Amino acid sequence: MGLLVLLALWQALALAGGGYLLAGPLGVASWLAAHGGLILRALSVTLANAAWGFLLGNLAAILLAAIALVWPRLLNLVGGLALVVFCLPLVATGPILRVLMGPGEGPQVVLAALAVYYTTLIPLLAGLRAAPQVWFDLIRSYGRGRWSELAHVRARAALPYLLAGLQISAPAAVLGAMVGEFTGAERGLGVLTIRFTRDLDVPALWGVAGIAAAASIVPYAALGWLGARIADDKPPVILSPPRIVRGSPFRKAAGTALLVGAVLVLWWGGMEVLGLNRFFAKRPDDLAEALLWAPDAARTRQVLWAATVQTLIWALPGYLAGLAAGAGLAILLSLLPWLGSLMTPLAVALRSIPIVTTAPLVVVLTGRGAAGTMTLVALMVFFPTFVACQHGLRQAPGPILDLFRSHAAGRLARLLHLRIPAMLPALFASARMAVPAAILAVTVVEWLATGRGLGSLMALSASLSDYDMLWLTVAVVTVMAALFHAAVSAAERRVLAAFAPEQTHA
């Protein structure tokens, strides 16, 4: 029923707009019927790349989470390196990967993997800590170690969170593969998107967008169905002492210095080992020279600063709006479950339509200013927040829910006093995941449509083969995302110390 309502609304909007910017489902279906062979060939290529990226990225996430839990001292280093890699903007790393890897499917698979691994890693790490302390005490009383804790306690506790991460990453894999196809691929839905955008073929463009959305919705729904059947146990009551293990300022500074050093060593060492040409594969010392000592260093700093300020002005309001919308809708559906059949498909569809397809159209509708950019940033942040918060609301302990019901507590009282506090770890996990997503969204819009900010600077630098500026913008975007992530993590520690202290120490 919800799907029929959405289709009717879609058709009505298309008719109201005259079909100039929005093709209705009837027009899209007619175009797809006439070009079925072309779409199927492109879809098969994109799905294959997305599937390989989904598999490799999620395997990497599970491996990193296991390493961080078995050797807790490596948690900050592993998480920091994973964050830095995830913060690399796809619109800049795509062309670089194409130069490094050449023609073929390699860049598409790598970008799909990069788009998904962190969205699984963060919920998984939260889930691996979501277990009662008495379970770990029981494991230790039998003389077992961390591997037994991981296999018998943490893995089971983390299953709902893992499924939430996999659901979020399914549309991200399709998006990553399509962004990779934008960098010079010969086949795929991304290639068709470029072609139809240039031709202003509205039915074809929305046909490709609809197919991409369907390709994301199917695995999303399948993973949801699977999760409902294998993770249906009531969440346990988690009792944890209300304390946080805080490191000294010196240890925190040393950990940060270790992370920065590891990034620089891996960056420089990897390029030297591979023997990459310095013309396009810039090392840290090349960027330091371009930023500080080169004859035009002052102008370079001025251009970078102006672009950074512009990107921040558009990214932050859209990020906050997306968080509020995602959490708000999840809470609303917990109070009014009958709305789920209408709103959930719409939420998945909005996230599944690739931003590289919708960005030019939204900008045409809303202008090249702040409104369109903030809208697209909010859409990117909204979906992972919505999915994570839905799962978080279901993590309210079953025995406590029964206790509330026995005292005739209403749905609103259970929501305020139990479900929302249980949702907070998922909300903050999604807030951390959404930081790079917001930066990706704003840079993609700047790259494709607005002509301002860091995204536009990346596109201009790539077209002029100005690899110093291209790598500098990548570094600035990465540092910006890392600082935002650190701010969210600091807020998370303070809030969860009161509501979910088991999440604040391993």
TrEMBL record:
Renumbered to this chain, the signal peptide range is: none
The record's section on InterPro entries has: MetI-like, MetI-like_sf
Which PROSITE patterns does this UniProt record tie to the protein? ABC_TM1
The record, for Pfam families, names:
BPD_transp_1
Q: What are the transmembrane regions?
A: 47-70, 77-97, 109-136, 204-228, 249-269, 312-336, 348-365, 424-449, 469-488
**Domain ABC transmembrane type-1, which positions?**
39-227, 308-492
Query: How is this protein named in the record?
Result: ABC transporter permease subunit
Species name? Paracoccus subflavus
